[in-house]
Amino acid sequence: MSTFTLPKKDSDEVTVNLPDNLSQHQLLSFPAFQTWLSTLRHSLSGQENLSHTFHAAPYKLRHIDIQSVDFFGGKRVGFIKLQAHVSNDQGERLPGSVFLRGGSVGILVIAPYALCPICADNRLWQLILQPDDVPETTEDEKQVILTIQPRIPAGSLALAELPAGMLDDSGTFAGGAAKEIAEETGLEIPAKDLINMTELAIPPSSGTDEHLQQGVYPSPGGCDEFIPFFLWQKRVPRGQLRQWQGKLTGLREHGEKITLTLCPLSQLWKHGGRDAKSLAAWALYHGLRQEGKI
Fold this sequence. Notes:
Elements: E1 2-5, E2 15-18, H1 24-29, H2 31-45, E3 60-72, E4 76-87, E5 93-94, E6 97-100, E7 105-111, H3 117-121, E8 125-131, E9 143-151, E10 156-161, E11 164-167, E12 173-174, H4 176-185, E13 195-196, H5 197-201, E14 229-236, H6 238-247, E15 259-264, H7 268-271, H8 276-290
């Protein structure tokens, strides 16, 4: 184990304890750690304001214990578990168990048509499909693409959820879900066609002095993850949508890890009810529709 001191910020000196398999350079180069530390320090500095709730007994970041780290590909830092010791001079502490993984994105993809079999039977990018022979102004027959895949932390081998991924260097939706969508439907999702629902719903700063990330925090009690939600809507020929409906049933071939299904937009809150991304995207979509922003 090794120890170092973070560069001073507003005269606060913070010591960091590292495990043997993580260097100071690796930690300080990890984007999720940089973002979390900068955000926390800015929020703590807000206590200097006389009207701040904690102004009389401000909390300080005393030291950080890095408890464990997971690497991707053997070298790149993927996840970090740490304990942040935050307390005031009266000895009162704030819960500081943190799982750092950084931000991700969710897409709502919508495409209108009839009820899909998998949704009828059982059960970050919001991708919405709709037949091109219905009026563009209607919500009729809109369908959402969901992924079905194992999620071991949830104890599931077949969890229905919104596609998650990232934007690659060319500005196109990328990742395992994006690859599956492209293979099964031929659809590729360019960044220029995406609507950032989070940005429309939650303006920067949003009336607070804290500089939080422009996204939804699904588990702020223990994780730094934040998710911006994007909407992608596409009108397609009814015949094409019917063909996809017969193909995208959510049923997996032997050994297949990820597959797709179509779900009526009106039923997303129910069939994606175990997925926080689905519920957040559904709420953002309907809220923005009510206000005429999308």
